[in-house]
Design brief:
- This protein has 136 residues and is α+β, with helices and mostly antiparallel strands.
- It has one domain: Roll (2,3-Dihydroxybiphenyl 1,2-Dioxygenase, domain 1), CATH 3.10.180.
- Strand 6 and strand 7 form a beta hairpin.
- The longest helix is centred in the first third of the chain and has 12 residues.
- It is globular.
- The two termini are 25 Å apart.
- The mean pLDDT is 96.
């Protein structure tokens, strides 16, 4: 049996065209507040993380037209973008995806927001879901 590499859900990412409007919706409707906000230049996005128990709702908006989130919004509109799973060892989890024939976007782990280490798994090999592996 394979060792369980996913430790919990880190976040559910939602692509939005208007970050302030989305934050306002979650604040007014659910009482959720922003726990962390960051401009992630390498991915061309601004994110707002709203804490829900031990996980987050990650609201993402593009900061440039060529970012993956901008392309997603143009093609599919606002909505669920990806699911982030916490892992103890991002490199080991990424290698497991490769070893089991999965497609990866990142060939090696890289720096993510909040000082995390991340890697993305392509949705074509993950039943249509973009997966982010997140090591704190």
């Amino acid at each position: 049996m394979t060792e369980l590499l996913l430790t919990e859900i880190d976040h559910v990412a939602i692509a939005v065209p208007d970050l302030e409007a989305a934050i306002g919706y979650y604040e007014e409707t659910f009482g959720a507040t922003v726990d962390h906000r960051e401009l992630v230049e390498s991915d061309g996005v601004e994110e707002a993380l709203l804490k829900v128990a031990d996980s987050y709702i990650q609201l993402l908006t593009p900061t440039r037209e060529d970012s993956p989130v901008a392309k997603y919004l143009e093609k599919k509109g606002p909505g669920l973008h990806h699911v982030g799973y916490r892992v103890a060892d991002c490199a080991a989890a990424l290698q497991s995806v490769k070893d089991h024939g999965g497609q990866v976007i990142d060939q090696a782990p890289r720096p993510g927001s909040r000082g995390t280490t991340v890697a993305f798994v392509h949705p074509k090999g993950a039943f249509g879901t973009l997966i982010e592996l997140v090591q704190e």
